Amino acid sequence: MSSMMRGTTDNGLLLPVPDDDGRPFWEFAARGELRVQACAACHRPRFPPRPCCPHCQSFATEWHRTSGRGRIWSYVLPHPPLLPGYAEQAPYNVVLVELADVPGIRLVGNLVASPDAGLDSVDPSRLRIGAPVRVAFARIAPGVTVPRWLLERS
Fold first, then answer.
1. Which of 65, 81, 101, 137 has the smallest number of Cβ neighbours within 10 A?
2. pTM for the complete prediction?
3. DSSP-assigned letters across all residues of 72-84
């Protein structure tokens, strides 16, 4: 069985498993766009994507393009035991980024030196709550593009 069939990349990293509500997020990411689902009735953004608005209970949805800029809201440096593909890149970071133009919407990802750099490409000492970041997109497997984060010059 190939690693792609098990839901991992060739180097053992996990692949996203889109559901019907989240599939557009990944399709936009593949085009280099960071979009967030919003209610088409009350226009409030929501993440993660879901079928019904938690505010007005409408099932009407739309996808708003964002600037792709934000700030590190929180972060963690995972410690072993880790899956083998991740253990090989430790120490690496996992950041929670609050989007600048969609306050309250936070996305999980990795802070990297360049879109295709390893998860361990940023020295952990450079991580700071509030640091400005911008999105970049990395193709991690055929047909799979994920958002990652780059430090902005401040």
1. 81
2. 0.90
3. EEEEE---SS--H
Residue 106 makes CB contacts below 8 A (sequence gap 6+) with: 47, 73, 96, 97, 98, 99
Q: Which two tokens stand for residue 129?
A: 């709550």
> Distance between CA atoms of 12 and 62, rounded to whole angstroms?
34
Domains of the chain, by residue range, sit at 3-151
What is the DSSP track for 30-54? HTT--EEEEETTT--EESS--SS-T
Q: What is the pLDDT of residues 71-117, one digit of tens each?
A: 999 999 998 878 998 998 899 999 999 999 999 999 999 999 999 99
Q: How far apart are CA 24 and CA 16, in angstroms?
A: 13
**120 vs 18, 49, 92, 94, CA distance in Å?**
25, 29, 4, 10
Q: Is 116:80 a contact under the CB 8 Å cutoff?
A: no
